[in-house]
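Troubleshooting log. The previous run stalled partway through. Resubmitting the same two chains, unchanged.
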Amino acid sequence: MKAPDVGWSPVSRPGPPDVTAAVVVAYLVRRIIGAVFLMVIVSMVTFAIFFLVPRLGGATADDLASRYVGKSAGPEQIHQMAVKLGFTKPLYEQYGDFASSVVRGADYDTGSGIEHCPAPCLGYSFITQNPVGPELLNRVPVTLSLAVGAAVIWVTFGVSTGVISALRKGSVFDRTAMSVALAGVSLPIFFTGLLSLSVLSYGLHLFPPGSSYTPITENPVQWAYDLTLPWITLAFLYAAGYARLTRSGMLETMNEDYIRTARAKGLPERTVVIKHGLRATLTPILTIFGLDLGLLLGGAVLTESTYSLNGIGKYAIDAITTNDLPKVLGVTLLAATFIVVANLAVDLLYAVVDPRVRLS
Amino acid sequence: MRHKRTAVGAAGAATLAVILAACGGSGGGTSGGSSGSSASGSSAGGSSGKAEFNAAVGKVYNASDAKGGTLRFANSGDWDSLDPADTYYAYSWDFVRLFGRSLVMFASAPGKDGAKLVPDLAESLGAPSDGGKTWTYKLRKGVKFEDGTVVTSKDVKYAVERSLDKDTFPNGPTYFNDSLDLQGYTSPYKDTSADKLALKAIDTPDDNTIVFHLKAPFSGFDYFAQLPSTIPVPRAKDTGTKYKEHVVATGPYMFETNNPGKDFSLVRNPNWDPATDPNRKALPDKITVQLNVNAEDIDNRLLAGDLDVDIAGTGVQPATQPRILADAAKKANADSALVARLWYTAVNGDVAPLDNIHCRKAVQYAADKTGYQRAYGGTTGGEIATNLMPPVISGAEQFDDYNAKASPSGDLEKAKSELQQCGQPNGFATNISYRAERPKEKAVAESLQQSLAKVGIKLTVKPYPTGDYFKLYAGKPAFAKANGLGLMVSGWGADWPDGYGFLEQIVDSRVIHAAGNTNLTVKDPAVDALIDKALGTTDTAAREKTWVDIDKKVMDDAFILPGVWAKGLLYRPPTLTNVFVTDGFQMYDYLALGVKK
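Second attempt completed without errors. Output:
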């Protein structure tokens, strides 16, 4: 990728040679292999936490199974459940079954017949007795809608507020914005969420009640309307942080020599701020954005719980409270995937935002 | 029933936390405390249109026959399963009657009338023969599945057969597994016969007759026949663990949509014929249920009119209670109902010196009963329990062997005297366990710690994880004995409101296994003998008297320190019609509800 012409700033210094498509592909392949390796490690560690650690603590297969049988189950029934859930097999075999279900899918006994669950099946829930993969994928749209919508809002408002605050340092706008930002960072979602529901939804009836969600494919307008409150609540928290980050970054950048030089060159202020100032500030913001979005896609736990949105975060919480280990494992893997992918995307975007960075 | 498995960990933990939370809180405002029957149907059968506190307790509030509208439910957790073979929540048994018809059901009637069994799919209640070992039911004619197929006795037999398969349906009750003369039969899915109906314990001599053969006489078999597992299942449509995603309806409603873990909706079943069904009004046109909804949000939506019913039926959250009780207008839309649940502390005869009955009695006398009640939120949380069976249990009697009423904060003189007789005049030291994630049980342990210290009984509190409390700790006799758990805080809700449904699982010594027990401490052959006597008594009044005798004997043994008979504070939005609390499930009767359009 070619660096844009930015005049006499440090970023315009001659960089490494242009990257060819082959190099990009090789880089991507290397990163993807690394990501897959990372996922295997993550799945092994998570698996070990849930399946190996209890055994080291002395729990037998039947002890583990006793959580998943009904009331007044006798020892025989508990043992049958242990066999059904695979607890009686050696640990490596249990992990192998799980890994195989991710890669190849798996066949499950529904009692009345055998059901095939295509990859990535992610094992079989101990509680709902359904394959985890489809359940989880079914919830991705909710979390995706929530996270991406909120991200658009927080980046737009957070970064622009930060820039304006930095440019008008000490002004009323700056002070007000930074106070609101401080509140935004400090107030937990279960407070702002419940408060806005209580006032805006149940009090003034401006927004729909909790647990409202319409798929975007069904009705895009209703989708946006239903998600407006959750978006704002979630974005408020993040926008605040981004505004503060942008402001401090901009203040630092705008004091750099190259900015003074750019101004001295007679470049319009708009170009100085956006092309020279903001661009340099964006790199750390992009890094954090990648992590934030990746984490959120793995489940916006508090927002989803407060607004009763059945996304991945809510799924994770329910899985944990019911000891449904395959679900927890599935969510962990999915969340790890999102973070890895988001990081990869950020690394690729660096080159666009900051010409100093080259793929190497 | 659970108000589900008091005894189990995993899946029950979250729900039980909700139940627990719902039974506590602050503030007063109910008339309870002494009479015990204050909240349950004294004037059953009446009707009322005036919004006032407890207007739907014992009588119908906003009586109506107006059809139409959408009835909106929400559940703070997930459903254990919509499959009738695999469900064990009180609210679920209340709700499934909307789409499924079991042989027998609890009458859709307010107060005590709602605890009476009436025939549903069957023409009449069961006809016992062979001294109560054989039970025969005749099916009503003309009942159809939602696809128009006629329901036969074979569909009922198949439904019961599949409910026996605990590998496939682990959540459901095991009453049929335990009582039927199975002769090794385990599951229709392993049945090699062509029609999958090889179970010998159930005969279907013709399409309208079904006969159950039991291992031993059981006088209350009609309670088994009301279990959702007798709701017919067409074998051709049975998809095992996936059947819960589309249960084939026999009731007035059938599934329209079902998104597991998220929501589902029911619409009218065109093949339900009201002429075959004297029990159901079927007022709403549509029923929607949202799952996994934030519990506080449910309360807010109820109060704002955005929701009609909190399906769990255990009452509003503790934080919502004062908002309702302090506001006259909101309080007029609330009902405080006693439930068939006892919060209690088990006294362990395996741990010295509590093996001596006088030491156990000293605990009974010294305990501060008002402290116990305070731990559960005062009078809103429940009434001080003087014995085991809650007043909503059919035939229950109240008696007070340990002066809980006369000396609610503890009868120290009597306690000291019992300690003398026990040979421990200066008291003794022991441990008290509770479920770590339950602040109310912690409060109980601390209250008992304080009150028993007054007579020299020193308690060390021992919290254990809620999820494994019965499987690995308090419910595992070897662990409890080895760790000196002299007292164990617990609670129990009845599967159905009769003596057997409430007492059997907590006082019969023969149900004690190596682990996972709900009977933590009651081991008395005399109690077991009385239980056998009750099981063989077909005369209802005589049987109920025997259950009272059992209650008295366990209290006399002092194996259980009763704490609180739980209450729930239910909120009924003004949108609802035909609302009443039924003693059958101790919550609103979901079969009767209608909505103002």
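Takeaways: The two ends of chain A are 12 Å apart (CA to CA). The longest helix of chain A spans residues 21-56.
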